[in-house]
Write a structure and sequence with these properties.
This protein is α/β, with parallel strands linked by helices. The chain contains 26 helices and 23 strands. Helix 3 packs antiparallel against helix 4.
Length: 664
């Protein structure tokens, strides 16, 4: 009943927006007749209307109509009515849930332009630096046609979109080797002129990742002179893949730190100690809460190995820290799941995207403990100089909005933490994808064998298949099973993501089989027939049923599963999805509880016979809801703690800013 009420309100909230779209469309004929210079003149007129006392809502229809015409002229793409709907939701300061392939990037242009008319700067936040660079060039053509400047922020650099700027040949050759995630075109840097970060923030619209915006804020508040500060305030932000940034990354604070005292020898010692401790006897692991608690027997054993009488004596308190982090590294953090060892370094794997987080390190000595466990060089610990949570950084903006393909399952958190309403935008073409019931097996092996049989059958027909896995280790297990069954396939994970563009470009071709981690989940478009698309092959794939997506395990968050499903059925294309699960999967084992075991035992079936009942699928969804609830609580508690620090931080930074102004 609650879901029905939610849908009723969501549908009702679209009615006034659809009326606004009709108002925008009514202006189209007059604006199409304008010359190129007249588009810029119209922009100036809208600014004058704001100066005269009108509001952004007053000038909205004309601003959106101008943005649509500029897109048509520069890109040859006229935004659909549903993209205008998405743009209206963004302007309202809400989350627009738009399905994959519906053109979220273009939908953000009109609201970004409208709000930039206020002269305070609009920030468009992307999930990686490649998209920031790409969108500044791609969408920059539209803004430039309207007389606006566009910049982008990347690590250690900033650029202004300038179509008259040409990069040096050597730089062009280097960049030509980089490809975007779909493999559809090369990184476009040719028209990006290097500028200072302060100039980037002075631009009308600035693209960049959440980390770049957040770290610039922290650096501004460590600056010794006002001239060293770059940001000019926090007016309006449009956040792409908003659930990834505001929810998935919310527990990872932004930190500026510097090296502290060296303690690598201690971590090496305690890594040896931890390797000799036994689970259950010497320490207890709670996988639900992700904790490892050392028992009295474990403490006694550690004291003997280290040669101290009382590890909890005041003079030895630091040793307890080394022991706890070393046990946590051993018991809770797994190689090729949570991290990889690459070129002699421990590199974190993003649990939500499957990508390597190069340069990111675990806090409080945990990273050093993992380095010691893996036998690589242990780097020194760091001292924190500035820190802010993602939640509190974005709550500084006067208005924020976001877009994603998966938001409704986290609507409560968006509302409670950020005051954001989630509004679902209908697709431009009806969804033709079939989501088949889950198949649940007793054992992991039986599930893997069943997956191999299913893939073989579909490959025989020629239907392309994408298999999603939850970790690099599981990715390699599935790959080995396919190889044993004689199935030709490609493997994509964080270890070989330099080939990502080439692999994804072929994933929609006849007979293609791709085994991927979450790298191929969010924001990846797999085109039927390959990329660049071949019309005859694309049509053949459509006749075969389109892309078939197999999930080999449920993720903790339903949104991640939905992102995987979203790779099929793009823009009205046919497609299908199905999840293969087992009782030995982490989610089922840790959170499924006795109910799942009882359900399986009630049906005395052989291992290779799956259960396919809605009741069982419902139990899986309940397990996911439990995890989502637990993670929401963790983020909520983190925010409550950070709110206390935030009041102090805001007061100190305000006083510091006043002193810099006086001194300048």
């Amino acid at each position: 009943m609650f879901n029905s009420i939610k849908k009723l309100f969501a549908n009702r909230s679209l009615e006034p927006l659809q009326e606004k779209v009709a108002e925008i469309n009514a202006l189209e004929e007059g604006i199409v007749a304008l010359g190129s210079d007249e588009l810029k003149v119209e922009s100036l007129k809208l600014k004058e209307r704001l100066t005269a006392g009108e509001t952004l809502d007053d000038i909205l229809p004309r601003a959106f109509a101008l943005a649509r015409e500029a897109a048509r002229r520069t890109l040859g793409q006229r935004p659909y009515d549903v993209q205008l709907l998405g743009g209206l939701v963004l302007h309202q300061g809400a989350v627009a849930e738009m399905m994959t392939g519906e053109g979220k990037t273009l939908a953000a242009v009109a609201p970004a332009y409208l709000n930039a008319l206020a002269g305070k700067g609009t920030h468009v936040v992307t999930v990686n630096e490649y998209l920031a660079r790409r969108d500044a060039v791609w969408m920059g053509q539209i803004y430039r046609a309207l007389g606006f400047s566009v910049a982008c922020l990347v690590p250690n650099a900033a650029y202004l979109y300038d179509p008259e700027y040409k990069i040096a040949k050597e730089e062009e050759e280097k960049l030509d080797k980089e490809r975007d995630t779909t493999g559809s075109f090369l990184v476009q840097q040719e028209f990006l002129r290097p500028i200072s970060r302060r100039e980037a923030y002075e631009a009308d619209i600035t693209y960049g990742t959440n980390h770049e915006f957040g770290f610039d804020y922290l650096r501004d508040n460590l600056a010794y002179q006002a001239e060293g500060q770059v940001q000019r305030g926090h007016f309006f932000a449009i956040i792409d893949e908003v659930d990834s940034i505001l929810i998935d990354e919310a527990r990872t604070p932004l930190i500026i730190a510097a090296p502290d005292a060296q303690s690598s020898d201690f971590y090496k010692t305690f890594a040896r100690v931890a390797s000799n401790l036994q689970p259950e006897t010497d320490y207890e692991v709670d996988e639900k809460r992700k904790t490892a608690i050392i028992t009295d027997a474990g403490i006694e054993k550690a004291e003997k190995m280290v040669g101290v009488k009382n590890m909890y004596a005041p003079e030895n308190v630091r040793l307890v820290h080394y022991l706890e982090e070393s046990v946590k590294a051993k018991a809770l953090f797994k190689r090729d799941k949570d991290y990889v060892v690459k070129n002699g370094e421990v590199v974190i794997v993003d649990e939500f995207t499957g990508r390597l987080l190069v340069g990111r390190r675990y806090q409080a000595g945990l990273h050093q403990a993992i380095e010691a466990k893996e036998g690589v060089a242990v780097k020194e610990e760091s001292r924190t100089y500035a820190k802010i949570s993602i939640q509190n950084y974005f709550r500084m903006y006067e208005k924020i909005s976001g877009m994603t393909g998966t938001a409704q399952t986290s609507a409560e958190e968006f509302h409670k933490v950020y005051g954001l309403e989630v509004i679902s935008i209908p697709p431009n073409r009806p969804l033709a994808r079939q989501d088949l019931n889950d198949l649940i097996y007793k054992s992991f092996k039986a599930k893997v064998d069943a997956v191999a049989r299913e893939v073989k059958e579909r490959q025989k027909k020629g239907q392309p298949v994408l298999l999603g896995t939850t970790s690099i280790a599981k990715n390699e297990i599935i790959s080995a099973a396919l190889s044993a069954a004689g199935i030709k396939h490609e493997v994509l994970n964080a270890k070989n993501n330099e080939r990502e563009g080439a692999i994804i470009a072929q994933a929609g071709r006849v007979g293609a089989v791709t085994v991927a981690t979450n790298v191929a989940g969010r924001g990846v478009d797999i085109l039927l027939g390959g990329n660049p698309p071949m019309r005859a092959e694309a049509e053949k794939v459509r006749e075969l049923g389109g892309l078939h997506v197999i999930g080999t395990e449920r993720h903790e968050a339903r949104r991640i599963d939905n992102q995987l499903r979203g790779r099929a059925g793009r823009q009205g294309d046919p497609g299908s999805t199905q999840f293969f699960l087992s009782l030995e999967d982490d989610l089922m084992r840790i959170f499924g509880g006795e109910r799942m075991k009882n359900l399986m035992e009630r049906f005395d079936l052989p291992d290779d016979q799956p259960i396919e009942f809605k009741m069982v699928t419902g139990a899986v969804a309940q397990a996911q809801e439990k995890v989502e609830g637990a993670n929401f609580d963790l983020r909520k508690h983190l925010l409550e703690y950070d709110d206390v620090l935030n009041k102090q931080r805001a007061a100190v930074y305000k006083r510091r800013g006043e002193m810099l102004e006086v001194g300048s």
